[in-house]
Amino acid sequence: VPSGLRYDTVTFLSDYGTADEFVGVVHSVIRSITPELTVLDLTHEISPHDVRAGSLVLARSAQYLCPGIVLAVVDPGVGTDRRPVAVEVGEGASVLVGPDNGLLAPAVGMVGGATRAVVLDRPEHHLPSPGDTFAGRDLFAPVVAALAQGLDLHDVGTPIDPAALQPAMVPLSREEDGNVVAQILWIDRFGNAQLNVGPEEVEQLGERVRLRFGGTMPTTRSAAVARTFADVGSGQVGLVVDSYGLLAVAMDRRSAATELGLSEDDPVTIEPIADDEPEATRSVTSSVSIGTRPPEAQP
Amino acid sequence: VPSGLRYDTVTFLSDYGTADEFVGVVHSVIRSITPELTVLDLTHEISPHDVRAGSLVLARSAQYLCPGIVLAVVDPGVGTDRRPVAVEVGEGASVLVGPDNGLLAPAVGMVGGATRAVVLDRPEHHLPSPGDTFAGRDLFAPVVAALAQGLDLHDVGTPIDPAALQPAMVPLSREEDGNVVAQILWIDRFGNAQLNVGPEEVEQLGERVRLRFGGTMPTTRSAAVARTFADVGSGQVGLVVDSYGLLAVAMDRRSAATELGLSEDDPVTIEPIADDEPEATRSVTSSVSIGTRPPEAQP
Amino acid sequence: VPSGLRYDTVTFLSDYGTADEFVGVVHSVIRSITPELTVLDLTHEISPHDVRAGSLVLARSAQYLCPGIVLAVVDPGVGTDRRPVAVEVGEGASVLVGPDNGLLAPAVGMVGGATRAVVLDRPEHHLPSPGDTFAGRDLFAPVVAALAQGLDLHDVGTPIDPAALQPAMVPLSREEDGNVVAQILWIDRFGNAQLNVGPEEVEQLGERVRLRFGGTMPTTRSAAVARTFADVGSGQVGLVVDSYGLLAVAMDRRSAATELGLSEDDPVTIEPIADDEPEATRSVTSSVSIGTRPPEAQP
């Protein structure tokens, strides 16, 4: 780390969008205080107030983030008694800063849990502010800059029990009558719908499965697990093992979400297809078995 | 400032959007000439040609920006006789660079006025260009890079009287028949509608006021001044003191702009509510008095 | 170049969008490996899978980009047998990294052609990955970081013949019956429709021409070549010499694409207007001759 900083990278996520100046002003405040600090934007297009979506982005990204500070602001309760916190993980390897509303919890869990936590209640480390609605600028940005410079967690806040932090609300899949009942965690730009299910959970259902979608457009489709979008087959629906190791409902070069009317949070049931079902309902996807690809096939 | 630069930070605002390569190319041209210079993006999603919206973003941000160069390009008259200018403020603490069309004026005013100004009429400091439509790349970027390296304003342009710069057109609120006639300056991502009115201007109207909206969907609502969005009360309309110290028409976790059909520039009249009006028209908002919050309530 | 890096700048283009965390994670992986490397975003809003649009952005930008590494990912065939490649240009002045699907070819051509190329088939330089769908994070980012640190092309891949790279598919204009048959290459944020035609190609058609649009809304308009948008004249259609030296169908402060129903790829025929045509069909645009503007008119 250059320049004698304690942390040299801030990874910044919010629901601020980029049409207003919010993100740029936070960058500017941080740079005004600690010019050597680099701020990377993870995304700022979390839907307004969607704490759950923000927490899932952090959890998916956690293992790929630079060590340093994570600043996350999706904060519908800004200015109220929800607590602004800093959470240390890995004995100080990184610090997550944001509101204590469940946003940080899944990422904290992904990297081994919190070692210390404080409530950011020291106004001498905040900017004087004309209003109480922009904590990113007035409270979180100066605290992040101070932590990067080497202030200890206990310099910027009052210790709290990490176990008392707001827990995450990540839905778990479950087995029911031999089926797997899943939920759509995330629909990405390409229309792939990530489920809260890994490939190992559906192995016992056989090579082909039936997907029962329970959103606004109830329908069923047969699908096979596939390694790439191209393997799904034109016009077919597949369960692609995505870049986080979870199954995503996907189509080749088309948006599965649009074609099937899927939304985040929708339930999806994964069912076995009986051997005696007519062939017509079976998938014509060229299925690919997981785990049997030889290493030399790596692109 | 490292590397012997005169200025080490450029804050960049435009109406270029981010779908095209305009912003990236300006970054690249600046870095090609002056690699040590850091460029922060304020926003590039000003509506095409909306000089007024761009000028308001700059004015709101001015006091939070890193000292250095501000590059602002919202330039419907690109290539015509509107003048490209550089405006020095604070005896050289910062320089604002952009077209002389009113875009820079409110920010210049916010930081104490111009100390010097030049028209950027020295083609030897510009890129040779195949057309006259991309002044950000061909004229402003290389001038910004040259100023950062230490060239004086007078090296890159011909002095003009700062008083002759295009003035801003910021609408002022006014009193009329005991009411305050305001205008919507800005609607942010969350649907809050900032007015050109501070809390002190409505104090004499009483704790509750009537808002009369004059846009495409004329309607009235009662409202109270509130400190946070949560204080507005579910389903109610409030006047929240926003992060710039102005009143914003807001709702808790909902878009006031969508619910009330508000647009930027719409007039809003703030009226007292008579004591003998039936209670039903009174606000049920839990009102919070401004200025009486003890310091220890700071979140 | 500081810090002993072989390359200190990466220019990054993709179809990842900015709503998901894809772009931020690629930044983070690169910074985790090579912290001194600066990553500039060119744009990430290429339409999903639109290789042609991405290749045109790179070609337009090529001459303005910082020397260094270009990372370009528009990759509908991710994980299949399309080859991930690194292409050296200018005897090592820059390296372009991305899928071999035609995306890189026009930019490579613009800067003088490839001097060497490799297929990125050395998994020891990639991240271990739970799936095969995010090559930007797992394959391209670590390779870019390694090349910046000084690894040779041959360290990260197996040499291939640069002549065997997937060629570009850039449509050429043609003459037909005395007309110029063009195509819309690009519609920018302001609604200007860039044609694959330079001003010299229409000179022999006379000062005024007829544009015949062949998209979803067939129509004709007369137009003159203009130097600036303002020169087009209010409500008129012009052929503005754009910032890349090509003709763009444009209107002053309005979106020509919206007004005329234009889309990328649409054909446009440019026809001479006969001298004996009634004046009514002639352009009333204040025409400006190309090449006759004195140098002192430079803004």
Please give a structural write-up.
The structure is a homotrimer of 299-residue chains. Chain A is α+β, with helices and mostly antiparallel strands and 299 residues long. Chain A contains seven helices and 15 strands. Chain A has helices spanning 22-33, 51-61, 105-110, 135-149, 153-156, 229-232, 256-260; strands spanning 9-14, 38-43, 69-73, 84-89, 94-99, 114-119, 158-159, 174-176, 179-187, 193-195, 208-213, 219-226, 238-241, 247-250, 267-272. In chain A, the strands form two sheets. A seven-stranded mixed β-sheet of chain A has the order 2-1-3-5-4-6-7. In chain A, α1 (22-33) runs parallel beside α4. The longest helix of chain A has 15 residues, at 135-149. Chain A is elongated, with a radius of gyration of 22 Å. The two termini of chain A are 34 Å apart. Chains in contact: A-B, A-C, B-C. At the A-B interface, α1 and α4 of A face β1, β2, α2 and α6 of B.
Secondary structure: elements and pairs:
The structure is a homotrimer of 299-residue chains.
Chain A: E1 9-14, H1 22-33, E2 38-43, H2 51-61, E3 69-73, E4 84-89, E5 94-99, H3 105-110, E6 114-119, H4 135-149, H5 153-156, E7 158-159, E8 174-176, E9 179-187, E10 193-195, E11 208-213, E12 219-226, H6 229-232, E13 238-241, E14 247-250, H7 256-260, E15 267-272
Parallel strand pairs in A: 1-2, 1-3, 3-5, 12-13
Antiparallel strand pairs in A: 4-5, 4-6, 6-7, 8-9, 9-10, 9-15, 10-14, 11-12, 11-15, 13-14
Helix pairs in contact in A: 1-4
